[in-house]
TrEMBL record:
It comes from the Bacteria. Coiled coil: none annotated. It comes from Gordonia desulfuricans. GO terms for molecular function: FAD binding; oxidoreductase activity. Residues 4-189 form the FAD-binding PCMH-type domain. Belongs to the FAD-binding oxidoreductase/transferase type 4 family. Its cofactor is FAD. Pfam families: FAD-oxidase_C, FAD_binding_4. This is FAD-binding oxidoreductase. The keyword Flavoprotein applies. Keywords: FAD, Flavoprotein, Oxidoreductase. GO terms for biological process: respiratory electron transport chain.
């Protein structure tokens, strides 16, 4: 991102949970702060240590890069145990060999780790079908801030003994414990999937089209929105234009079903409003997916200043208005910059990328985007978490009592404040 830099007095790369526990025990005894890093693909600065070293409290970076074991797949139970540093791609490939798949997928799959996707409760492109990462977690192993190992590792689908600690650690961004292993639910891959990129007149046409596909009996596997500015940028960086007709918006739609999926999809496209052009390919349709997945890289390569990246969500009925307001904001006299918006449209999730922002306007622009999102009843963090980037704005998404409850949980589990200081709580 080119936005975050930090300072660590040492980097530690443990191989086993016992080694993590030994490191954390030592840090607890000496008051050393720990920044946990998985694949370092997070987009809110949570895996980067604080930038100013604090003389009295050294900081280590604890990397899970060597904790990459993947256990044998439990085909009957549809689950797998993995170490925290196993990448999403590795887990998915292992699951694939057993005829299953990991229900979380994202363009950072080669680097993003199990620990990272759990710690951020990542959403990704399959969220519309299989839910977020939290809902894939059956069990967890973690080292607490005092060095003790907590292991709740049961494949039981029904097991209601007390608090949902795996659920709590999902989305905790390294502030409550170091996740060392995860027992993950696996899902069955779709059959007969078709992938389409549809050129559309308006955002509301995309949401209507998703509804029409559902009504026609199709299962939505993914639904991603792109704008003409984004598709053009990807094209400038060597990507292909998916359809011949230029349009304000493009919907990448992946659908599945039982038999005749392509015919049903073509029928939906013929009768839907706002369709200017479309291309349909049998799944996995990697060439079509590439257009969407190359957005982040193309954006990073074509901005003069660090990108202001804001991952927000709004109620689906407000998406069209929110996108229009965000584009108007970026063109306004007060905040002139280049907006590239894309996102998981079926979840109401917009990735706001603002390029060429004068550095002294980054915070002002962030505030202005959050004001637009709040005005539409949305959230300042849809799936990337809070990290360091958004810690000043959590009050926009949670009440004072809610924030105090989170703080009480943090203080109970990490009374010395050693785990990922500066993340989530500022
Ligand atoms: C091209 C691209 C596409 C992306 N697409 C998506 C997307 O579709 N959906 C989405 O949600 N995100 C997306 N992301 C963001 C990112 O990939 C996710 O946030 C991912 O979950 C981070 O995983 P990581 O292993 O890289 O974690 P890191 O970046 O290393 O860390 C992220 C946070 O998790 C904490 N953490 C990491 N490992 C552990 C652990 N073992 N124990 C405790 N805390 C830990 C860190 O301290 C930090 O706070 C994308 C990023 C890129 C670059």
């Amino acid at each position: 991102m080119g936005r975050y830099t930090g300072h660590a007095d040492a980097v530690v790369r443990p191989r086993t949970t016992d080694e993590v526990a030994a490191v954390v025990t030592l840090c607890a005894a000496e008051g050393v702060r720990i920044c946990v890093q998985g694949g370092n693909t997070g987009l809110v600065g949570g895996s980067v240590p604080p930038s100013h070293p604090d003389g009295s409290r050294p900081t280590i970076l604890l990397s899970t890069a060597r904790m990459t074991d993947v256990d044998e797949i439990d085909i009957v139970g549809q689950s797998v145990g993995v170490q925290a540093g196993a990448s999403v791609a590795t887990i998915d490939t292992a699951a694939g060999r057993a005829g299953l798949m990991f229900g979380v997928d994202l363009a950072s799959r080669e680097s993003a780790t199990a620990g990272g996707v759990v710690a951020t409760n990542a959403g990704g492109v399959r969220m519309i079908r299989h839910g977020n990462t939290r809902s894939q977690v059956l069990g967890i192993e973690a080292v607490l801030a005092d060095g003790r190992i907590l292991r709740r590792w049961s494949p039981l689908v029904k097991d209601n003994v007390g608090y949902d600690i795996p659920g709590l650690l999902a989305g905790s961004e390294g502030t409550l414990a170091v996740i060392t292993g995860v027992l993950l639910r696996l899902v069955r891959p779709a059959t007969g999937a078709e992938v389409a990129v549809i050129a559309l007149r308006a955002v509301d046409d995309a949401t209507a089209l998703i509804g029409a596909a559902r009504d026609a009996g199709l299962t939505i596997e993914a639904a991603e929105l792109m704008t003409d500015a984004g598709v053009t940028l990807v094209h400038e960086h060597g990507g292909r234009r998916p359809v011949a007709t230029a349009a304000p918006f493009y919907l990448l739609l992946e659908v599945s079903g039982t038999g005749g999926v392509q015919d049903v999809l073509l029928g939906v496209l013929e009768t839907a409003d706002g369709v200017l052009d479309a291309v349909v390919e049998p799944g996995p349709g990697r060439a079509l997916w590439e257009v969407r997945e190359r957005h982040t890289e193309s954006i990073s390569r074509s901005t003069a200043t660090p990108v202001v990246k804001l991952d927000v969500s709004v109620p689906i009925h407000a998406l069209g208005d929110a996108v229009a307001d965000l584009e108007a904001l970026a063109g306004s006299r007060d905040h002139r910059c280049r907006p590239i918006l894309f996102g998981h449209v079926g979840d109401g999730n917009i990735h706001v990328n603002l390029l060429d922002v004068p550095p002294d306007d980054a915070d002002g622009l962030t505030e202005a985007v959050f004001a637009v999102i709040a005005g539409h009843g949305g959230s300042i963090s849809a799936e990337h978490g809070i990290g360091r980037a958004k810690s000043a704005w959590t009050h926009l998404g949670r009440s004072a009592v809610d924030l105090a409850t989170m703080r009480a949980i943090k203080d109970a589990l990490d009374p010395q404040g050693l785990l990922n200081p500066g993340v989530l709580f500022g």
